Every structure is written in structure tokens, then in C-alpha cells.
């Protein structure tokens, strides 16, 4: 009798397991709806609600596709995705930083999108951004949003001190001193992250690497001059001595509270700025192109995000994911996202009257026109990681500008696969 | 008689042949015991033996994220990494990677100072709480509280308090008229800061363990010592400390192993770029495996080296203790 009970239990549990399996495979059946997962790396409070609304619209238009939305913090998304992709269970769609796309494609995690539903309207996009999503001639991502760094400033403080938005870093230093003298507000807060050092580098005519001659150029004369400018600004008190653990957050807090007059930041931060007490009046936030260096030209890096599709998904999921990417990057969706959150569209036909009516977005559109794409090598995000370590060492005064940059160049050559063949001075 | 009993034993020895035969015999007689042990063996095999074996294997290869096997849905990409022998160990131990020895030195300093402070502060608090005083149970609960806080929560709270601009420490220092301290920025201060947090987290465990040890020392010993005219210091030195020895030996060893591999505080408190000189071996190994370049072989090498160092430490520590025990 006892054995009988055990056998019944066994059969019952087997049956349960079998039905559970059945439920799983039903999902993939041709007739039923396909469920795809999207890892969104945007700001969970300011941007995510807008994308959730877009998903509702997409699901209403495509009855056979369901989208599971997951917000993954930007800082950890790349590593999380790599881990999941290697194990075969990555999300079907990822919002990948433009700097990640090449590296993920090199690992074969991404599906090429040429000729798929995702890229039907690719000709309407900014071709510079499209080129940035290509690896060896194949397109691996569709640009969803773009951005560039600009000089954001507090108009009220500027008016009180009687200064104009500076055109060069030298002018900025003078303006900062006047501001401190007349209003007591600090001049500028510079985020101690190497990405935010790019305007200084470009302003001196420098580059991170020269892909033509296959040379690492971050430690050349222009590079040294660029970082020396930053060091001098911090030393002379023009720039606040940054916090090295929470630099970005402290920068935002100081700017929002009106404790600092200027920051260098991108369009993604403006929604956050406007929640601060210094910008209760929206018009108080000024946007100007980043100042230029001694080379006489201003340069700002092109940033942004691409939507990419996982290579390990099966055909049904891939097609659904491609349709989803097409929808999210359509002119209408981009216009909607831009007006709701302040992000910048990646295609010209999305810069409608409604989008450019906003003065902040209109200013950023001008900033974008002069932005410089990142070097077309994979592993750019890894390059920033190594560079930031040395950048912080330099700012702390633990090492000299020269030594810090030389170490950066050496680390790039040894640690970044795509730079193994490059020469270093 | 003696020889008679010895003879069958020697005669039986040739019959003890073959490990297999013995195992078979043992299986025949104790098969249920084997069956009972089996699940445990399986679990240990899956959770410990396989990962450990895999780690050892990877440390002899040049595996990284580009050449490991990948399962991308239906397509399978086979592994292409190669066996490189002791290359990884040589690169690390010869100092060629430039990271190992500086990080080892700081890991040892970190472990030694943390365990020292844990033990001394824990001992002090335990001695205080071992007396009869008003509200003793309240103090005990309050002092144990940090232990109940998950390490990562504590780390984030402390990180806010250490913040150079909005943190409470600098606010207090400002009130006192002392300039702000760059707690997490300055290379030396960030080391002090992380040790401070770990001490805060680790003292309660030591305190509770030592308190248990103190209560196990019989009061008769103290009474006898008092009768002999021993001063409080002499009572502490010759009754309390020897009485605590078994507890101390265990908690110091546990504390050393835990602190050596105390991951969350340094990893979460400082962030990657800021912690260039304050990474301990285990956080660095994690950066290798899951940081930017994903060097699985390098991380495995560090992991095996950390394991070996702790094993050697544990063996020597036990041996020294045993020797002391034997002397006594």
C-alpha cells in the first residue's frame, strides 16, 4: 500500500513537470503570441514611463507580440548582458550604449540587422550614427537616441555676475572668477570621468587613437595640454575639487541647488536639472556649446544608444524583436520620446516643430551638429575605464599628467584587444 | 598469548588485498550508508568540486570572453582557448603583471588591521558587557545591531556619510571649524575609511563570540585568583586570556579568512576607477573576470592563489596553536 502511495506521488509530480514543460513550449508555437524581453538602460524615473507608454502602443498595433519591459541600471547593464548572452539567455532587445555595440558584436552576441524589418527606414537616420553602429560593414544596432556634451549654465547667476557664456576654456576661467567674486557661487563642476574630458581633448585638436596610422594618440602633446587645462582649473579653484566616488551625483546636486554656475553634461541630464530648486523656472537653464581649447575649435563627443537584437534568439523572437526595434526608432516614437523626456532623436524627420520648439532641445540640436564620433574600434568603453583610473590619479595629484597619460596608452595597448597592433609613443 | 593474538592479524593482512574488493565488501555490508551519503556527495560535487576543478583548469589556459564556448540559442560556438601551462602563475608571481604584490601587501595590511581591531574592540566590549550593569540586554542588542545589517546596505549608508560634500562627517568637521576631509578620494583616507566600516561591521560577531567564551570561564578561577591576591590585570592576563584561548583561536582564524575575502565593502564603497591603490586581491580577481576585458584565466589564477594562501595560513596557524597547546 505504501509503495502505491509513493508511486502515485511520483506519477503526479512527473505529470506536473510535463505540463509545466508544455506551458513553456506553447509560447513558441507558431500561432500564439511571441513574448520578447527588452532591457532598457534609461533613467528609471525620468525616461522609463515614456518607453512603457510606447510599448503599450506597440502591443496594440502588434497583437501577436508581447513585450516584457525590464529597466536595468546603465552602469551594470553591459556586464550583465555579457553574462546572460554567453549563457544563452540574454534579452531579445537591449538598449546598448554606442560604445558597447562594437564589443558585443565582436563577441557574436548581436544579430546583424541589414535587410531586416528593423532597418527599413535606415536611410532617414543620421548616417554618422548609423556608421557608428556598423562593425566590418554589417549593421548591428539601430540608433535610438543621441547626445553630446554641452556647457549647461545657470542664467540667473550669469546675469548677476554680468558674464556671457564663455567661448574658450580661458574665457571660462575668467568668467568663473568673476562669478565667485560677485555672487559667491562656484564656477564649474567637472565630473571626474574620462568621457567628460573629451571636450578638452578635442578642443586641443587631440584624439584618443588614430585609426588611420594605427597609433594611440591620447598621450601626445594635445592630450597633455588638454588634461593640464583641467588640472589647472581644479588647482586655481575655477572648477570645484570633485568627489571621486560620487562625482556625477555631487555635480548634479551642486548644479541643481545653484551652488555651482556651470557643468559639462548631456541632454539626458536636463530633465533631472529641472527638478532642482535653481531651475524652478525652466528658462533659467542655459545650454551652450562646450568652450574651445587653444586649437581654436570646440569638440564634443557623440554619444547615445542603439537598440540591438540578441543573436541567440530563435527566428520568431528575432523577427518580433526587429519589428519592435523598428517601432521604437520610428519617427513618431522618437518625436514622442523627445517631447516627453528631452532626449534627442537620431533621424532628421523626427526633429519636428514640436521637438525643436523647446529651447533646450533646440540648443542641443546645434551642439550635435559639431559633435565628433568616437573612434571606430571595439572596446571603447573599456578604454574609458582605463583612462578614468589614470584621470582620477592625475586629478588627485598622485601622478603627473604626462605619466598618467603614458600609463593610459600602455594599458590600452595591453588590455584592449582591438589596439594590440597599435603603436604607442 | 600475545603472539597468538598477533599471528592471525599478520596472517589476515594478505587477505586485505585490493581497494576494489574492500569497497565492494563495504558496499555489500553498508549499502544503505552509501545510499544515504550519495546525495551529499552529489551536492558537494556540483557546488564545490566541479567549480573548483574548473577554476584550476582555467588557470592553466588563456581563456577570455572572446574564446570561451558560447551557446547562442541554436548556434553553438565552440571554445578556442588553449592550455598554456604555468604561464599565468609565472606572470602573476614574477610580478610581471605589476598588480599582484602591491595588492597582496595591502590585502595583508587590511586583514591584519581589521582582525586586530575586531578582536581588541570586541574583547573590550565583551568585558564591559560581562559585568552586571543596568540595561545590559539593551546594550547587547544595540551592539549586535551592525551584525544584522547586510554588508552592502551598511556600505552604501557609510558611503553617503563619507561623501565629501554632502556627508555627515564633513558637516560635523565643518561645524568644528576643521576643513573637510576627502574621505573616499585621498588614497590614504580611503583605506582608513574602508577599515572603519569593516571594523564597525565585524566587531559584533567577535563580541558575541568572546562573550560566550567569557561566560564559559568558571567564576571559581577568579575567586581563587583573588584569594591569592592577584590584581585585576593579573586576573585578566592569567585567567581570562588563557580561558578564552579556544574561542579566540577559532574566531581569529575565521576573521582572517573572512576579512581577506571581504568583497562588498571595498568593491561598493570606492568604485573601480577610484580604488586603484585600495583593491584587495579578491576584488581585483572579480574585476578581471567580470570587469571590462573578462580575463577568465587571469581571474582563476588569482582565485587559486588566494585559496592556496589561505590554506597555507590555516595549516600553519593550527600547527602553531597545537604546539602552544602541547607546551602548556
TrEMBL record, chain A:
PROSITE patterns: PROKAR_LIPOPROTEIN (PS51257). It holds the Pfam family SBP_bac_8. PANTHER family: MALTOSE-BINDING PERIPLASMIC PROTEIN, MALTOSE_MALTODEXTRIN-BINDING PERIPLASMIC PROTEIN. Keywords: Signal, Sugar transport, Transport. Belongs to the bacterial solute-binding protein 1 family. InterPro entries: Maltose/Cyclodextrin-bd, SBP. Residues 1-20 form the signal peptide. It comes from Streptomyces tamarix. The keyword Signal applies. This is Extracellular solute-binding protein. The keyword Aminoacyl-tRNA synthetase does not apply.
Automatic annotation (TrEMBL), chain B:
PROSITE patterns: ABC_TM1. It is found in: Cell membrane. Residues 104-317 form the ABC transmembrane type-1 domain. InterPro entries: MetI-like, MetI-like_sf, UgpAE/MalFG_permease. Keywords: Cell membrane, Membrane, Transmembrane, Transmembrane helix, Transport. The chain crosses the membrane at residues 31-52, 104-129, 141-158, 192-214, 247-270, 296-317. It is a multi-pass membrane protein. Belongs to the binding-protein-dependent transport system permease family. This is Sugar ABC transporter permease.
